[in-house]
Amino acid sequence: MTFVSNALGSLGSLIDYLSIATKKLHHSQSQNSLPPALTISHKRWRIARTFIYSSRVLVTLAIDVITRKQDQLVITILPSSPSFTTLDIKQTTPTFSAIDQTKLTQIVKNKNLDLLRHEYGGAQEVALALDTHTENGILGDDDDVRHRREAFGSNTYHKPPPKGFLHFVLEAFKDTTILILLVCATLSLAFGIKEHGLKEGWYDGGSIFVAVFLVISVSAGSNFRQSRQFEKLSSISNNIQVDVVRGGRRQQISIFDVVVGDIACLKIGDQIPADGLFLDGHSLQVDESSMTGESDHVEVDKTRNPFLISGAKVADGYGHMLVTSVGMNTGWGEMMNSINRDSSERTPLQSRLDKLTSSIGKVGLAVAFLVLVVLLVRYFTGNTEDENGNREFNGSKAKINDVLNSVVRIVADAVTIVVVAIPEGLPLAVTLTLAYSMKRMMVDQALVRKLSACETMGSATTICTDKTGTLTMNHMKVTEFWLGQQTISDVASSAIAPTVLQLFHQGVGLNTTGSVFRPTSGETPEFSGSPTEKAVLSWAVLELDMDMEELKKNYTIMHVEAFNSEKKRSGISMKKKGEKTINVHWKGAAEIILAMCSSYYESSGSMKTMHEEDRMKFKQIIQSMAGKSLRCIAFAHRQIPNEESRDNTDKRAHQSLEETNLTLLGLVGIKDPCRPGVQEAIKACRKAGVNIKMITGDNVFTARAIAIECGILEPNLDMNNGEIVEGVEFRNYTQEERIEKVERIRVMARSSPLDKLLMVQCLKQKGHVVAVTGDGTNDAPALKEADIGLSMGIQGTEVAKESSDIVILDDNFASIATVLKWGRCVYNNIQKFIQFQLTVNVAALVINFVAAISAGKVPLTAVQLLWVNLIMDTLGALALATERPTEELMEKPPVGRTKPLITKVMWRNLMAQALYQIVMLLTLQFKGESIFGVNEKVKDTLIFNVFVLCQVFNEFNARKLEKKNVFKGIHKNKLFLGIVAITIILQVIMVEFLKKFADTERLNWRQWCACFGIAAMSWPIAWVVKCIPVSDNPFLRSQVVGRL
User: Fold this and answer.
1) Which CA distances in Å does 480 have to 504, 629, 634, 709?
2) What is the pLDDT of residue 416?
3) Residue ranges per domain, the chain?
């Protein structure tokens, strides 16, 4: 039975009918008037009967009113007796029949205020039609939300369908070399079938077809998988948390769960989750540039502009909005539907590797062209022999089919050399390692919004970090309270004068963006808002017996100046209902509020003038609390005399608040302990050569205490040695002074977002790669200016998150250190793969070129080279790109901006391995038959087998660029071991069971042992080579890789 909640709205109409009821009652009594001779008992019986009859009349009238006024109430009259009537009242789902969704959507989109007032009367009436209580919100249970979603739609937009597997297959077919190979395979297949019949003639061309499709399928499958992963990460990054009021309780929900009728709470930095109407709030200004392109902020209020559009950002103030349209019914939804997000973002590293690939490809193309010319000349001059030792080309005696078939085979071999020479696996390796690291970083509490940040973070030389919530736990609690010049250890409300206590209630309960929810069951109240707001509110409610609901009922807020990181204070003007006296309340950073005060209250309630010695005493109190790592908040008050406010009440509501001659109410110290593990994380970063700079809005003493506690500063540090500065001091330096001193600074206190931006610019001018954390709207310029912007997932505003590259989901500095480690891992994995890839490229090009010049044929066929290409580009990339970060990465200095991608260490390693492979394979090419006592077919198989196994063993060497022990930690990378095992198994199958396909001969166990032995020699060679010292100076400065 839910009669009460719905019937209350009809009480007004019910009262209109009471006069009718009275007339009916009078008529009833007149017809049943009492004779004078009746006894007292009879009179009492008549009165009771009349009362019961009258009640039935009133109930009948109530049924009539409620039925007409509330469509959602179903009232059933159960069987009644002459003395009572029973009602069964059930609430059904509201129909929203008074709302025309299309019309309301257009009114809000077009900001048509006249039509809004004409059609509905205003925002309050729209809320009533949407069955929304303007303070308690919607009911919010599952049935209510589901019905609203069915009636008005969900807050999602239709995304373009994701690219399917076929798309990536078709993309792979656009590669010119692949198309040439397919043409060659087609011609080879046709000539082979014509010459040898279908049973024997399809092997050469069919093998190339199978090999090409295998390469394409693996590559397309890998790209398809990464595309889906990027789509998933993108949906996570779009899942914004929104504050709404449901059932009288403020709660956070996903933006996708917002429904029409919701009351959304807005504050500075929030993204407006849907289209809607302004209900209440103060000084609300929004940035609609994402929708309209206009950079000027738009003021929102009840009278002139109550319209709020989805996708806009709150620039100032706070308020509550009524959601009127969601999803595709909003302008933001329509715009997002028309945008096809492309996940193929090219990072700087990918662009650099594209240049490297192009340059190496040109070299490969030149070698392939030379091989093509040499082979064609040797063929047409009769210097080549077939399998039986006969000349292949006999002039006019040669069959046209044989000539064409031989030419196609030569062209296919040359094109295959190009395929192998072009290291298209480099971009794939970057994509794989970025995708893998993004996925793993999500587990480590870091959401990557821009791919380039993954790799850039590995080069970071300086991290500028916030204090609150990043270095500290963000679990704040009031631990000290000063009233006047004495500390109040027993903060029971009885210890404070009633007048001062009342002013504290006003200053805390009204000058806040937080809220208090009191459960009906008598449980502990729930507090919402920023951590500082929650700490102060919980202290006032639990210790000072503040009743926030009572304050809101008795007082009217006239003007608000919202808190931001520049002013470091917030203020309100308010008055008691029914009175004209205006009171101004300020709250904020203690020394800033103290400077605005000329008097102070004592606990007794008396007001005293603040002399200079009193001011110094308060400063000492503030410094004392700051030295204990407490954040010091001050409260101040001023009453505006009646003669000043009598005629200017409306005018004053839109003016700036009084900022002078305030009376200090008191000081509170808020403790926010350091996060566990932050000292170790900072120590690890400094060991890795990364400078840590703390930038905070707290005063210099609190900042110093926290910095010492976290390990950023030494305990006995002199305050005047230049490592600690205040924002205003840094701001007032000349540009030359800032450049000179910026590297020495470790802590900046009382900083503004402008100071943070100046520091980032100075560090970048000094050549640093800078990572910056930020959570506020005003941090957006610094986040954009930095090489890597790190926003906070919990405390960060949506503006800050959109300006950042990586979102730290748990706001923890330890997660930032983990991101640094992952960034270095990405960079290191790419270097590993480059070394591995270039070794194969150099060896394959040299072997094929020398063999073509000397013997007139290449030892590795097109199918074999495609198999090597598959091992290199896809399986090799997958094996080396998925290495997990190790502690060794944090023992090296950062690479910075100028260090080449291909270092001297890498050149040393790859040239040694390539030289060994060339020597061994050319030895087999020219002496293999005599060494092993085999024919040419088996010799070619041995060359192919040794070449592949050398790459497998060299994968182990590539795991460690400088360390000699390449097996350390290998048991942790099961994917690497699995790929190596799969490669060896497939190689055995290729040689032993796919003779026709791979053009190989079976090998005996001695020959297999010899192949493994030759390949395994690459391990001791790598160990010896790594003993050769190399300098840190760049080895290659050429156009090819010098800029890498």
Assistant:
1) 15, 12, 12, 20
2) 66
3) 101-156+256-338, 348-437+821-884+895-1027, 446-473+675-811, 477-518+525-642+660-671
- Write out pLDDT tens, residues 603-632: 888 899 999 999 999 999 999 998 888 989
User: In the chain, what are the helix, strand and coil shares in percent, each to the nearest 5?
Assistant: 55, 15, 30
Q: What are the structure tokens assigned to 751, written together?
A: 């900083």
Q: How far apart are CA 383 and CA 402, in angstroms?
A: 15
10 Å Cβ neighbour count for 479?
14
Alpha helices in 795-903 (DSSP H): 798-803, 813-855, 862-870, 877-881
The CATH classification number of 348-437+821-884+895-1027 equals 1.20.1110.10
Amino acid at 581: T
What does pTM read for this prediction? 0.69
First to last CA, the chain: 74
Residue 555: predicted pLDDT: 92
Give the type of residue at 951: Q
922-931's contacts with Cβ under 8 Å and 24+ in sequence apart are: 922/847, 922/850, 922/851, 925/847, 925/850, 925/851, 925/855, 925/859, 926/854
**Is residue 723 within 8 Å of 746, Cβ to Cβ?**
yes
578 three-state secondary structure? coil
User: Which is nearest to 788 in space by CA: 804, 808, 767, 765?
Assistant: 804
> What is the rounded CA–CA span in Å between residue 465 and residue 695?
6
Closest CA to 586 of 663, 641, 528, 655: 663
Sign of CA dihedral 804, 701, 663, 672: positive
- Token pair in block for residue 30: 């007149």
Measuring CA to CA, which residue among 1016, 1020, 864 is closest to residue 951? Answer: 1016
Tell me the C-alpha distance between 984 and 690, whole Å. Answer: 42
Mean model confidence pLDDT for the chain? 79
Q: How far is CA 485 from CA 382, 621, 624, 687, in A?
A: 108, 8, 13, 45
**Highest CATH level, class, for 101-156+256-338:** mainly beta
Whether the pLDDT of residue 513 is over 80: the answer is yes
Task: Give pLDDT tens digits for 728-762.
Answer: 999 999 999 999 999 999 999 988 888 889 999 99
Q: Whole-angstrom Cα distance, residue 30 to residue 336?
A: 73
Distance CA 666, CA 590 (A): 9
Contact, 329 vs 299, CB < 8 A?
A: no
Provide the sign of the torsion angle of the four alpha carbons 301, 302, 308, 314, taken in this order.
positive
Q: What does the alpha-carbon distance between residue 265 and residue 780 come to, in Å, rounded to a whole number?
A: 22
pLDDT-derived band at 97 (thresholds 50, 70, 90) equals confident
Q: Select the more confidently predicted residue: 147 or 94.
A: 147
pLDDT at 445: 85
Beta strands in 650-698 (DSSP E): 662-671, 691-695
* Residues noted as catalytic: 466
CATH of domain 477-518+525-642+660-671: 3.40.1110.10
